[in-house]
Amino acid sequence: MSPSPKISPAFEPFLHDCGANDKRDAIVIYRAPRLEELPVRGRHRALKQRLDYVKARASEQRPLQASLLERYQAEGAKRLTKDKHLEAVSIGSSALPIAKVQVTRKTLPALAEQPEVVAVLPNQRVHLIQPKRVDVGQLASQEVQQGLTWGLQQLDIAKAWETTRGKSVNVAVLDTGVYAEHPALAGRVKEFIIVDPLGRRISANPTFDCADHGTHVCGTIAGGKTPDGVSIGVAPEANLYVAGVLVGDSTLQTLVEGMVWAVEQGADILSMSLGFTYYEPYFAEFFKLLIDQFGVLPVVAIGNENHGNTSSPGNAHNALSVGAVEKTAGNKTDIAFFSSGASLAFPGFEPNALVHKPDVSAPGVQVWSCVPPQSRGGQTVEYLYMDGTSMATPHVSGVAALLMSAHPDAPVTDIIQVMKETAAHPGGAMKRPDNRWGFGMVQPVEALTALS
After folding, report:
1. pTM, two decimal places
2. Burial of 346 (0-12, 13-18, 19+ CB in 10 A)
3. Percent of the chain having pLDDT more than 90?
């Protein structure tokens, strides 16, 4: 196999047991002409303009994609001795310059040799970053007394709500689905699809969650109040667009299909609490497309594998990755022991300097949020406490929604920068970023002020 810099190093384990003619699915990112700039912010005041831009991008790229794939199929067929057909299909509407193709050890270099190709990635497995269920002592009664979860209290959300509650911002949640009929999510879920293991988009009504996870995440982003009057959502007026991409044997294809769908719906933010089997450096190319060409902010969990480890795609250099903060004795906070973090170098990729992950942190331990109704101990339960960077990530997605709603003309790059610059690090500004806290715990009120 060619050592082309366009070929992901994750192919080495992915193709380890394959014969020379064994076909495997891959995702290719190609270079496409850039259209006239999309107004980066202010998008929720002109959603039609944004969606027209997405359609124009797709129309412009389809013939380029068709030409690229036809040339690859012809060249690849020359390198195969049997079964020479190589499947190649678009992903979604082709709004993003991405396609799924079949490759073998012999044809993979032929794909990388095409001049328009930016990167080729194996269609590897994608998994949920598993949360934990936790025991709580007096926390529940304290939250009822305050009317806010401890995470919302820590972020001073009540003060931020004096300015904004996230109205008109679209947050796409790529997860296990959502139980949209939950009272805490009433009116918040605007669109819902399932992406099956073959990458097919399936409409489902009523909505469903194949686990508790997606509903819990949605509640932390935009949920309302519990029956006890506890507010659970950071941005309770934000819109949720949910793609169940972790249903069955999920792969990179199902995730990317969900990402493309979210862009087609006009998403402002992608919230992802998931990870890959193998480290994937080229996923940064997806984030580059989202940020630079569509003004979409990807927020990603860094993982629950403890200090010294990180999870892809959160460890991509341009992802806004999130670590988990816990509440300790004396009403203090610290980074949870399980929260991943590391300092990474990216040889051969830009930037070529040391990058510290996570980027920011947020409450991620003993997080109270909604789940699909279930029977426990003879009673129906609709709320649970969970731990994980999966629970910290939606806090940051919700904060981003508050900032975008209050400052609709701020570019996504400014939203990212201000969250980092105003974050609170226990060691002070001189100690950040590090590979535990990142720049620190996000501070919505300070970030709103800095953007003014």
Report:
1. 0.90
2. middle
3. 66
